[in-house]
Specification:
The chain is of the alpha+beta class. The protein folds into 3 domains: about 20-140; about 145-235; about 235-364, 2-Layer Sandwich (60s Ribosomal Protein L30, Chain: A). It contains 12 helices and 5 strands. It has helices at about 1-20, 25-35, 40-45, 50-65, 70-140, 150-180, 185-200, 210-235, 240-250, 275-290, 310-325, 350; strands at about 255, 260-265, 300-305, 330-335, 355-360. Strands 1-2-5-3-4 form a 5-stranded mixed β-sheet, with helices on both faces. It is rod-shaped.
Length: about 375
């Protein structure tokens, strides 16, 4: 009887052992902790292929455990942990590369901001000098006509003011013709300007300041009249503001506005008076902007000595603008009559020599 009980007990224990689940290997248990970590979540986002490989090894380990191959499950679990470690390392590298790229972008933005500030400072300095000179011109032009002889320095100031005013008059009349074409009124303003220029060429003893001021007023009136149809038909279009905003985005452009339109000043010329590589890039950009605005005229104004070299420089800029797509381009020589800084100052010749590209907008 005892032998039967012993045999029965042995049979029951053997059956129970055979039905017990296979114990989970340690590597698979550790693998689950690894998968729940913050590093795993990052690797899944930044290194999805490496993460997927580790998950494939885990799945193979689970299948081996289900098949009763504990040794294979242990090995596959260890391989999966190692694969997750590789995915973590890749994620850290990618995160570092992103930080480096972001730092480079931030550095470039700071450098651009610095360049913009330097350009704005240069523009403000030039504007301040121009306002100073303009104040001198206005003071001279507002003086009453002399009834007789006056101090030589006062007459010299009036003569400089008259030359500046008549040069501005001529440029305003050119802008009026570019916008509205030739008219009888514009021809009369042109003729009055030409008469004052002829008188100034003789270096008169008494400066024709009133005639020069009247010529400028007449040419400005013609430009205003030429713009009136476009301004009336679209009073809120803001063509000049939109153009100013677009040009402000160009490197080294630093545009400004005056009565003629939107102005970009070119200074990058070499010792021979030719455009530098940076200058050519800027001129090409200006030509492309003009190309997108069909019919927008450009006025190239050369400030210098008013000689053949200035004419050649203006023709070169005009040719580059046309090659970039600008259609209507005209060149005018202003000589040394509209300086930015008063002649005689240090580096005045260098600072006053420049080329203006004027976008003569068709509306106010």
């Amino acid at each position: 009887m005892s032998r039967r009980r012993l045999a029965l007990t042995t049979l029951v224990v053997g059956f129970a052992v055979s039905c017990a689940p296979t114990p989970e290997p340690r590597s698979l248990r550790e693998l689950e902790d690894v998968r729940r970590s913050a590093q795993a979540r990052e690797a899944r986002a930044l290194a999805p292929q490496a993460y997927a490989h580790a998950e494939e090894l885990r799945a193979r380990g689970r299948r081996a455990l289900e098949d009763g191959d504990t040794a294979a499950a242990q090995i596959l679990g260890e391989q999966a942990i190692a694969a997750h470690g590789h995915a973590f390392a890749l994620a850290r590298v990618l995160r570092a590369e992103r930080r480096v790229a972001q730092a480079k972008v931030a550095q470039q933005e700071k450098a651009k901001t610095l360049r913009d500030l330097e350009a704005q400072l240069a523009t403000l300095t030039a504007d301040a000098d121009a306002l100073e000179l303009r104040a001198e011109v206005l003071r001279a032009s507002s003086l009453p006509a002399p009834s007789g002889a006056t101090a030589p320095e006062r007459e010299a100031a009036r003569l400089a003011a008259a030359r500046a005013l008549v040069t501005e008059a001529r440029l305003l009349c050119v802008a009026a013709r570019l916008v509205g074409g030739k008219t009888a009124e514009l021809d009369a303003a042109d003729a009055a300007t030409a008469r004052v220029e002829a008188e100034l060429a003789r270096t008169p003893a008494t400066a024709p300041i009133d005639a020069a001021r009247a010529a400028r007023t007449a040419c400005l009136a013609r430009l205003t009249a030429a713009r009136r149809p476009a301004t009336t038909s679209a009073p809120a279009a803001g063509a000049a503001d939109a153009l100013l905003s677009e040009l402000s985005a160009l490197a080294d452009a630093a545009p400004s506005r005056d009565e003629r339109g939107v102005v970009v000043v070119l200074r990058p010329f070499d010792a021979k008076g030719a455009l530098s590589p940076a200058g050519r890039v800027l001129v090409e950009s200006l030509g492309r902007v003009a190309r997108t605005r069909a019919g927008l005229p450009l006025l190239v104004v050369v400030h210098g000595r008013g000689d053949a070299a200035d004419a050649e420089r203006g023709a070169g800029v005009a040719q580059a603008l046309r090659a970039a797509g600008a259609g209507n381009v005209e060149v005018a020589l202003a000589g040394d009559r509209l300086p930015i800084v008063a002649p005689g100052r240090r580096d005045s010749a260098t600072r006053n020599a420049r080329v203006e590209v004027v976008f003569v907008v068709p509306s106010a």
